[in-house]
Amino acid sequence: MQLDSLYQEVILDHYKHPQHKGLNPTFDAQVSHVNASCGDEITLNIKLENDVIESLTWDGQGCSISQASVSMMTDLLIGKTLHQASVIVKSFSELMASKGTSTGDALILEDAIAFSGVSKFPGRIKCSLLGWMAFKDVSIQAQSQ
Ligand code: ZN
Predict the structure, then answer these.
(1) Nearest-CA neighbor of 60 among 18, 11, 96?
(2) Is the pLDDT of residue 130 over 90?
(3) Helix (H) or strand (E) holding 94
(4) Please, what are the domains in the chain?
(5) 49-64 residue pLDDT tens
(6) Per-residue pLDDT reduced to its tens digit, 21-44
(7) What is the pLDDT of residue 48?
């Protein structure tokens, strides 16, 4: 897989120095998702303060794409409202569905546009979406309590 070298660096940096890794023992909901085709595993939990994401922590193992993507996602979503988070998640999902035709909206996605090149590689899209799908799941569960 060939990605733009700057983007490659951003992804590797998150892989080597994962953000918000280590599960917060206090949470409103927790989910575990796996991407069987690659062997990636992510457990993600969330704590809300009204509709603001107060804590979003994870643990997991797998390829650099899956682990860097969830690291970047937590960085991006903590402190946001659930509505703001849903806009960001939708934008990232659209980017991953773009088959390499979109460069991503940097105003919404910030550093996560580093994953734009991944959308050209169908086998890796599930890796980069794993944490984001887990977030959709955990945020719904947290709200239904
Ligand atoms: Zn993977």
Answers:
(1) 18
(2) yes
(3) helix 82-96
(4) 2-143 (3.90.1010.10)
(5) 999 999 999 999 999 9
(6) 999 999 999 999 999 999 999 999
(7) 98
Determine the average pLDDT of the residues in 72-88: 98
* CA–centroid distance, residue 35 to ligand 1 (Å): 7
CA 34 to centroid of ligand 1, rounded, Å: 10
Q: Find the 106 Cα to ligand 1 centroid distance in Å.
A: 24
How is residue 136 written in tokens?
Answer: 């959709």
Q: Kind and range of the H or E element at 33? A: strand 29-35
Q: Hey, what amino acid is at 51?
A: D
Predicted model pTM: 0.95
Distance 37 CA to ligand 1 centre (A): 8
Q: Sign of dihedral through CA atoms 23, 45, 86, 119?
A: positive
**CB count in 10 Å sphere of residue 113:** 20
In the reported structure, the alpha carbon of residue 31 is separated from the centroid of ligand 1 by a whole-number distance in angstroms of: 18
DSSP label at 83?
A: H
> Reduced to 3 states, what is the DSSP secondary structure of residue 116?
helix
Give the pLDDT confidence score for residue 105 in this predicted structure: 95
Tell me, in angstroms, the distance from the centre of ligand 1 to residue 13's CA.
Answer: 16
